[in-house]
From TrEMBL:
<dbReference type="Pfam" id="PF00685">
    <property type="entry name" value="Sulfotransfer_1"/>
</dbReference>
<dbReference type="InterPro" id="IPR000863">
    <property type="entry name" value="Sulfotransferase_dom"/>
</dbReference>
<keyword id="KW-0812">Transmembrane</keyword>
<dbReference type="GO" id="GO:0008467">
    <property type="term" value="F:[heparan sulfate]-glucosamine 3-sulfotransferase activity"/>
</dbReference>
<feature type="disulfide bond">
    <location>
        <begin position="330"/>
        <end position="342"/>
    </location>
</feature>
<comment type="similarity">
    <text>Belongs to the sulfotransferase 1 family.</text>
</comment>
<feature type="binding site">
    <location>
        <begin position="141"/>
        <end position="145"/>
    </location>
    <ligand>
        <name>3'-phosphoadenylyl sulfate</name>
    </ligand>
</feature>
<feature type="transmembrane region" description="Helical">
    <location>
        <begin position="20"/>
        <end position="38"/>
    </location>
</feature>
<keyword id="KW-0735">Signal-anchor</keyword>
<keyword id="KW-0808">Transferase</keyword>
<dbReference type="InterPro" id="IPR027417">
    <property type="entry name" value="P-loop_NTPase"/>
</dbReference>
<keyword id="KW-0325">Glycoprotein</keyword>
<feature type="binding site">
    <location>
        <begin position="347"/>
        <end position="351"/>
    </location>
    <ligand>
        <name>3'-phosphoadenylyl sulfate</name>
    </ligand>
</feature>
<feature type="domain" description="Sulfotransferase">
    <location>
        <begin position="132"/>
        <end position="367"/>
    </location>
</feature>
<feature type="binding site">
    <location>
        <position position="222"/>
    </location>
    <ligand>
        <name>3'-phosphoadenylyl sulfate</name>
    </ligand>
</feature>
<dbReference type="InterPro" id="IPR037359">
    <property type="entry name" value="NST/OST"/>
</dbReference>
<keyword id="KW-1133">Transmembrane helix</keyword>
Length: 385
């Protein structure tokens, strides 16, 4: 080995080695101390035992995280393991966004979290973890992942990559647990997360308001009929044996009675869900992003979102290109990378062909709810043309 040969030929004197060791030690000591103080959080503290427990719980939950949105019935979780096949198909899978890379729990515990998961990490781990000031609360299959990925390009946005599901599934873990999941932010940076099931969780508005009444809320909405088909397509990809979309849509196909208890249908009654949020938040604290325009004009929608969040308009047309193979806009450079980035294969799935009569029946069903929604939001989304 070249290195050992040099040693043999020209061994350093003992005093030279000692001097070098002392110099190296004095250089490394402050860095190690800084690392301990800023990154590991091992300062003696009376709350250490409980924060250790919280870290343990975080570790465990990261394993359990589905990183996706569950098909939750409004106000009631209808998932039952012993439910018949059709019922399980209706309530949908526990897991989603399976392509999202979660770091192994030991890395999370050591805070060596990949930049993709934790957002922009400064080399010295400066900043502190804060509760989110803005949330993408829905809707499932609306384009929430695309919006978050695009927003993360902004230097003043730091976001959790996975879906924390705090305000629906893990609320009893407490706000400290939630805060611990957040990436560190510097002064002026906004902490964000996205969990699309919040929009249809009855308790979420009160819980979020209890965290902070000033929380900014973003909802990506999409034509409820296409959204329902997208939702069904996702379930089908995991459970190919489920009944057809057409049969799940109706309580009674002959009478044409729609099954509004099927979460794929129910999530799309946006006006009804929004009503619940308006009991706790004023309209000007909620931004509605068009899922359709997020695809046809991502920079335009991102402009509105940046304004809403009080951010400088940094994300512009220059950040996107249309990927013909994917059929969607992609980022020229992903956050923390110099490479182009499209969303994974679970985004932009091919939908099955649905009987046009059933589609029309659903259009008729949603029309009055859509009209109400346009009226409430003051924005015409054009789903009923
Ligand atoms: N840029 C880009 N690339 C890929 N996909 C895009 C993009 N913008 C929006 N979309 C649409 O996002 C749909 C998935 O929505 P969500 O990310 O909200 O889904 S989830 O609820 O988190 O599972 C997904 O739905 P499907 O097409 O049905 O798969 C896409 O249509």
């Amino acid at each position: 080995m070249a290195f050992s040969r040099i040693h043999k030929l020209d061994p350093p004197s003992r005093s030279t080695s000692r001097k070098a060791a002392v110099m190296l030690g004095s250089l490394l000591a402050p860095l190690i101390l800084l690392h301990i103080l800023t990154d590991r959080g091992t300062l003696p503290s009376p709350v250490k035992a409980s924060s250790d427990r919280a870290a343990e719980r975080t570790k465990r939950l990261l394993y359990e995280w589905t990183a996706g949105s569950e098909m939750m019935s409004y106000g009631a979780d209808r998932r039952t393991s012993g439910a018949p096949a059709e019922e399980r198909a209706r309530t949908g899978p526990e897991l989603e966004e399976e392509s999202l890379q979660l770091p192994p729990p030991d890395l999370v515990a050591a805070r060596k979290v990949s930049p993709r998961f934790a957002g922009k990490v400064s080399p010295l781990g400066e900043g502190s973890k804060k509760l989110p000031r803005a949330l993408i609360i829905g809707v499932k299959k609306g384009g929430t992942r695309a919006l978050l990925e695009f927003l993360r390009v902004h230097p003043d946005v730091r976001a959790v990559g996975a879906e924390p599901h705090f305000f629906d599934r893990h609320y009893t873990n407490g706000l400290e647990w939630y805060r611990e999941l957040m990436p560190k932010t510097l002064e002026g940076q906004i902490t964000m997360e996205k969990t699309p099931s919040y929009f249809v969780t009855r308790e979420a508005p009160a819980r979020i308001s209890a965290m902070s009444r000033d929380t900014k809320l973003i909802v990506v909405v999409r034509d409820p009929v296409t959204r329902a088909i997208s939702d069904y397509t996702q379930t089908l990809s995991k459970k190919p044996d489920i009944p057809s979309f057409e049969s799940l849509t109706f309580k009674n196909r002959t009478t044409g009675l729609i099954d509004t208890s099927w979460s794929a249908i129910q999530i799309g009654i946006y006006a009804k869900h929004l009503d619940n949020w308006l009991q706790y938040f004023p309209m000007d604290q909620i931004l509605f992003v068009s899922g359709e325009r997020l695809i046809s004009d991502p920079a335009g929608e991102l402009g509105r979102v940046q304004d809403f969040l009080g951010l400088k308009r940094i994300i512009t047309d220059k950040h996107f290109y249309f990927n013909q193979t994917k059929g969607f806009p992609c980022l020229k450079k992903a956050e923390g990378s110099s490479k182009p980035h499209c969303l994974g294969k679970t985004k932009g799935r091919t939908h099955p062909n649905i009987d046009p009569e059933v589609v029309q029946r659903l259009r008729d069903f949603y029309r009055p709810f859509n009209m109400k929604f346009y009226q409430m939001t003051g924005r015409f989304f054009g789903w009923d043309d």
